Every structure is written in structure tokens, then in C-alpha cells.
């Protein structure tokens, strides 16, 4: 078995893809002609977005919709970077909302948190040193 996708349910797939391209430098991998599903080229595991309408058609019993005005879900997307200060600033300038500024962790990693335009929690961090 292989972990292949994380799919976030969003109001507007195309706006979300554009945000991730601008804020984090990802490129678009795929989107449906209906614009109700799209993927980012994000490494081995694909980050994807499905419209609320598509999600509702797949999950007949419903789901809890994420909201930028509520506390974030207890899950995050984490992106590692060697240029955390620049990338953190770029994300905020591109519309990400500051949750927690970059801080130094006892194990040497630097970590900061933002929310995307849909309210999903994103961690930007330096890679963990295994030395």
C-alpha cells in the first residue's frame, strides 16, 4: 500500500490551486474540465482539491465543512523548506493568514503556521536534522 493523496474539500478548486501556486510555488498537475477537482505537483504524495459539490455527491451522509472563521481542524499540511523566512513571508503576502510565527523547536527545527484561503492549517518548517 502507498499513501497517494490528501484531498481537501473547498468552495473553489481553481482559486485554491492558484493560491497554492502563488503562496508556495507548487504547479498544477491536473484539473477536471468541470473544475470540480484538481491536483498540485507536490512531490511523492499529491495534494488535491475537490469542490464541496463533488464531495457532497461522494459522501451521501455529509461531512464537516472547514471554515476559515472557525478553529482549524486537528490536522495540517506540512511543507519543508530551507528558506523558511522568505517562504513564510511569501505565503502571508499571497493571502495566507498568520496563525503562529516561526519559532525554534528544542530539536533544532524552525516551524511557523498559517491558514490557507479555505482555513486549512499549514505548517512551514525546516527539515528535521537526523545528524
Q: If strands are numbered along the chain, what order do they take across the biggest sheet? A: 1-4-3-2
Which class do the helix and strand fractions yield? Answer: alpha/beta
Report, as a whole number of angstroms, the end-to-end distance. 29 Å
Rough outline: globular
Report the portion of residues in β strands.
Answer: 25-35%
Helix content: 10-25%
Low-pLDDT runs of 5+ residues are none
Mean pLDDT: 96
| Strand segment tally | 8
The helix/strand order is EHEEEHEHEEE
Largest sheet, in brief, is:
4 strands, mixed
Number of helices: 3
Evaluate the radius of gyration: 15 Å
Protein described:
The chain is an alpha/beta fold. Helix content is 22%, strand content 34%. It contains three helices and eight strands; from the N terminus they run βαβββαβαβββ. The strands form two sheets. It has a four-stranded mixed sheet. Strands 5-8-7-6 form a four-stranded mixed sheet, with helices on one face. The two termini are 29 Å apart. The model has no long low-confidence stretch (mean pLDDT 96).
Amino acid at each position: 500500500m502507498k499513501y497517494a493523496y490528501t484531498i481537501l474539500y473547498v468552495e473553489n478548486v481553481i482559486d485554491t490551486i492558484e493560491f497554492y501556486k502563488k503562496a508556495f510555488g507548487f504547479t498544477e498537475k491536473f484539473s477536471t474540465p468541470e473544475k470540480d477537482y484538481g491536483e498540485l505537483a507536490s512531490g511523492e504524495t499529491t495534494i488535491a482539491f475537490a469542490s464541496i459539490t463533488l464531495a457532497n455527491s461522494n459522501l451521501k451522509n455529509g461531512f464537516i465543512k472547514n471554515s476559515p472563521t472557525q478553529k482549524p481542524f486537528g490536522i495540517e499540511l506540512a511543507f519543508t523548506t530551507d528558506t523558511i523566512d522568505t517562504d513564510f513571508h511569501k505565503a502571508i503576502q499571497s493571502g495566507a493568514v498568520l496563525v503562529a510565527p516561526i519559532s525554534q523547536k528544542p530539536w533544532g527545527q524552525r516551524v511557523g503556521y498559517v491558514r490557507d484561503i479555505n482555513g486549512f492549517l499549514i505548517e512551514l518548517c525546516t527539515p528535521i536534522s537526523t545528524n
